[in-house]
């Protein structure tokens, strides 16, 4: 297997030490040295890291003709020995003592047999031979849930349904995620690409011979979405009475119960215990609100970070209830799942096949997308392809 690593703890966003990108990649960064040191061990376990992490590596762009800015990118990829590329996540058990156990538990029977379980599957767990506090989770290669963009309302509904069902599954088993936000929602996009995308630079082809372009839409080739990152998750033996936890800030900084009232103190002086189940509900609702219904703008620059998607206002009443400031007034995930099915079950085939445009799309680009959408739509209707994607099809 070829493995694409995530970097160990370090500042990945520090300024490049050199002016040109290809020069900055001519040296091994501090955050990469762990992977270089463990490359022989990983290879002995059947995992081949990228060439830059292997012994004796020298930048190919220093000795080859051509555009060096292309060559240093191409260096990130190499042929897989068995055609499988995976991701390795290094977990510090002192910082996240339950992450490995929680993730592997959710990936194992009886949990793995529940069709609502969309928690990332664990392929293997590796123990660092040199340091007992580190373990590696071997995970499938996934990509951002919304790239490529959604083509139809039906595709959005399928995505939301899978994630809502996953949270319902977790809560039913008395598990809270506690760090639900868009970056922890991923997709197995392999059905969409005839030519695989690069594991690290996912906008590029695996061989770096051009941009990675999806060959199919989700309607043509349904995909599976996954929830990742269980480092803050908790499983309770009982939820009667409801659990109370000390505040812990995850990726969603807008949670009402996490907004303290003393700006002079850390976290605003936040100290009140909270029930994490309604907080999960809020975070799911806020994801739908920010990524689909309203969009999101940067408070600092007023720049659009996520553009509003059009044609989804029928979700507004449910999302409004899920994001109420008072946690006790939010529906449970069982109620969310039931209301979601009630809202979407009455949508016509015409609505489900409707294109999902973005509010800030360039008009010419939008015209192109609309034209290709209608050409594809006629073919899908003629072939009787369901308007609502399903992995069972």
Automatic annotation (TrEMBL):
<keyword id="KW-0418">Kinase</keyword>
<feature type="domain" description="Protein kinase">
    <location>
        <begin position="57"/>
        <end position="343"/>
    </location>
</feature>
<dbReference type="InterPro" id="IPR050339">
    <property type="entry name" value="CC_SR_Kinase"/>
</dbReference>
<protein>
    <submittedName>
        <fullName>Kinase-like domain-containing protein</fullName>
    </submittedName>
</protein>
<keyword id="KW-0547">Nucleotide-binding</keyword>
<dbReference type="GO" id="GO:0005634">
    <property type="term" value="C:nucleus"/>
</dbReference>
<dbReference type="GO" id="GO:0004672">
    <property type="term" value="F:protein kinase activity"/>
</dbReference>
<dbReference type="InterPro" id="IPR000719">
    <property type="entry name" value="Prot_kinase_dom"/>
</dbReference>
<dbReference type="GO" id="GO:0005737">
    <property type="term" value="C:cytoplasm"/>
</dbReference>
<keyword id="KW-0808">Transferase</keyword>
<keyword id="KW-0067">ATP-binding</keyword>
<dbReference type="InterPro" id="IPR011009">
    <property type="entry name" value="Kinase-like_dom_sf"/>
</dbReference>
<dbReference type="GO" id="GO:0005524">
    <property type="term" value="F:ATP binding"/>
</dbReference>
């Amino acid at each position: 297997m070829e493995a694409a690593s995530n970097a160990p703890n370090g500042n990945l966003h520090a300024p490049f030490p050199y002016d040109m990108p290809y020069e900055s990649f001519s040296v091994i960064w501090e955050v990469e040295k762990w992977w270089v040191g463990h490359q022989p061990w990983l290879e002995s376990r059947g995992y081949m890291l990228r060439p830059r992490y292997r012994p004796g590596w020298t930048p190919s762009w220093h000795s080859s003709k051509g555009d060096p800015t292309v060559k240093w990118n191409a260096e990130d990829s190499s042929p897989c020995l068995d055609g499988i590329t995976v991701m390795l996540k290094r977990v510090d058990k002192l910082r996240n003592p339950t992450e490995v156990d929680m993730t592997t538990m959710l990936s194992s029977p009886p949990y793995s047999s529940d069709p609502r379980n969309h928690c990332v599957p664990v392929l293997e767990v590796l123990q660092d031979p040199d340091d007992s506090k580190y373990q590696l989770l071997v995970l499938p290669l996934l990509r951002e849930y919304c790239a490529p963009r959604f083509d139809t309302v039906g595709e959005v509904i399928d995505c939301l349904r899978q994630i809502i069902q996953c949270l319902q599954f977790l809560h039913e088993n008395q598990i809270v995620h506690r760090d639900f936000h868009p970056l922890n929602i991923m997709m197995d996009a392999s059905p969409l690409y005839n030519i695989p995308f690069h594991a690290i630079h996912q906008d590029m082809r695996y061989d770096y011979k051009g941009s990675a372009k999806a060959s199919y839409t989700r309607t043509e080739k349904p995909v599976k979405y996954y929830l990742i990152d269980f480092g803050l998750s908790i499983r309770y033996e009982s939820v009667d009475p409801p659990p109370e936890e000390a505040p812990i800030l995850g990726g969603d900084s807008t949670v009402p119960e996490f907004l303290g009232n003393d700006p002079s103190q850390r976290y605003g002086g936040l100290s009140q215990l909270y029930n994490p189940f309604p907080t999960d509900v809020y975070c799911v609702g806020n994801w739908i609100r920010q990524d689909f219904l309203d969009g999101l703008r940067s408070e600092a620059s007023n720049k659009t970070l996520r553009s509003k998607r059009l044609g989804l206002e029928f979700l507004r009443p449910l999302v409004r209830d899920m994001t109420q400031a008072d946690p006790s007034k939010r529906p449970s995930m069982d109620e969310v799942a039931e209301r979601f099915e009630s809202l979407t079950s009455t949508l016509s085939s015409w609505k489900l096949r409707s294109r999902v445009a973005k509010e800030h799309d360039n008009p010419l680009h939008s015209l192109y997308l609309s034209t290709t959408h209608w050409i594809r739509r006629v073919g899908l209707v003629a072939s009787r392809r369901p308007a609502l994607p399903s992995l069972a099809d």
